[in-house]
Amino acid sequence: MKNIFILAALALLAVSCGTQKTPAVAATPAEPAKIVVLTPELEAGRDLYENNCAKCHKLKDPKKYTKEEWGPILVRMGKKAKLDETQMASITNYIDSQL
User: Fold this and answer.
1) What pLDDT shows up at residue 37?
2) Is-contact 80 21, C-beta < 8 A?
3) Digits of tens for pLDDT over the chain (99 positions)?
4) How many CB atoms lie within 10 A of CB 68?
5) Sign of CA pseudo-dihedral 59, 63, 64, 68
6) How many other C-beta atoms are found inside a 10 Å radius of the C-beta of residue 90?
7) Whether 58 contacts 68, CB under 8 Å
C-alpha cells in the first residue's frame, strides 16, 4: 500500500513538472499614431522651434511634456531666445498641435 502512494506521488510530481502553463497575454492593440497635417502657420512654428531652440540644446519631443508643462518652459526659453509674442504664439501652436 505504501508503494502505491509513493508511485502515485511520483506520477503526480512528474505530470505537474512536465506541463507548464504559460500565462495568457491579452493582445492590446497599439494606439495608432496621430497624424497632424501641418498648416503653413504650424510649419512656421515648427521652423521657429527647430531653428531657435536647437541653437542652445537638443530639441525635445513635444510629447515628452504635457500642455501644462510646456507653458512655463516656452515662456522661460522664449525670453532667453529673445522671441517676440508672435513667434512664441507660433511655436506654442506648433507644440500644442503635436500633443
Assistant:
1) 80
2) no
3) 666 767 666 665 566 666 555 555 555 666 666 676 889 999 999 999 999 988 899 999 999 999 999 999 999 999 999 999 999 999 999 999 998
4) 7
5) positive
6) 21
7) no
DSSP class of 17: H
CA distance 15 to 10: 9
Report the predicted TM-score, pTM, of the whole model to 2 decimal places. 0.63
- Whether the Cβ atoms of residue 63 and residue 71 lie closer than 8 Å to each other: no
For residue 76, the one-letter residue type is R
H-type alpha helices, the chain: 2-18, 40-48, 67-80, 85-98
Give the three-class secondary structure for 21.
coil
Dihedral-angle region of residue 32 (phi above 0 means left; psi in -120 to 50 means alpha; beta otherwise): beta
